[in-house]
What we know:
Blueprint: E1 2-6, H1 11-21, E2 24-25, E3 34-37, E4 49-52, E5 70-72, H2 79-94, H3 97-105, E6 121-125, H4 129-140, E7 144-148, E8 159-160, H5 164-170, E9 173-176, H6 190-195, E10 200-203, H7 212-221, E11 226-229, E12 246-248, H8 259-275, E13 282-284
Parallel strand pairs: 1-2, 1-3, 3-4, 4-5, 6-7, 6-9, 7-8, 9-10, 10-11, 11-12
Antiparallel strand pairs: 5-13
Amino acid sequence: xxxxxxxxxxxxxxxxxxxxxxxxxxxxxxxxxxxxxxxxxxxxxxxxxxxxxxxxxxxxxxxxxxxxxxxxxxxxxxxxxxxxxxxxxxxxxxxxxxxxxxxxxxxxxxxxxxxxxxxxxxxxxxxxxxxxxxxxxxxxxxxxxxxxxxxxxxxxxxxxxxxxxxxxxxxxxxxxxxxxxxxxxxxxxxxxxxxxxxxxxxxxxxxxxxxxxxxxxxxxxxxxxxxxxxxxxxxxxxxxxxxxxxxxxxxxxxxxxxxxxxxxxxxxxxxxxxxxxxxxxxxxxx
Length: 286
């Protein structure tokens, strides 16, 4: 079998893929059985498997994929850097990093009140690879961990909640880690927000899991509540400016410099695993 990269690559990445998958590199798309792609798939005459480099697939138009072609995601490909982004946002907020930095650069030496994450309860909505990595880091930091998810995975010291409503009612921090789907679109709405008794909601999943009007209204009426997010509605077009009680980054959660090679290796292993009979990253069957 042969593979093709529908993205810019160098010889080291091609060699890594060949070593992991046991395939050979095709210089021509039409010669490839497997195509690795980023934003948009490319399909050749012999294509049988499309493997995305990204974890998410909610933006893919699967109706345009011909029958007979399998589509795989890279679920789990970016667990570590995305989980790190959760705590970058949280620490920036609780330690007032941005404000302190701005003051110091302006020549003002002023200590503002800060808080610690130690002892706080973090609630994780969606307990896949990213959610589990968030739980690991939180546990090391001395936080209490609670979660709600469609499927339950054993995790030391984790308190499972029976509903998203119950999770919102019982945590200091709510972290959104679930994929965007028809079922989860807009699920963080006024009903959930009104139940939230904590201080911070963190979103490192997709913007549209949170209903925009509900969240903006909630933040306007609750100046002591904060929305920390790596995703924004209509990105990259910023049609609504973030309010003051937001900390926002431009969807950089999966970026990680040298981690790029690890994410690629996981995509290569995803294809190898599928060819061995496993279907855990299957998005569309042939």
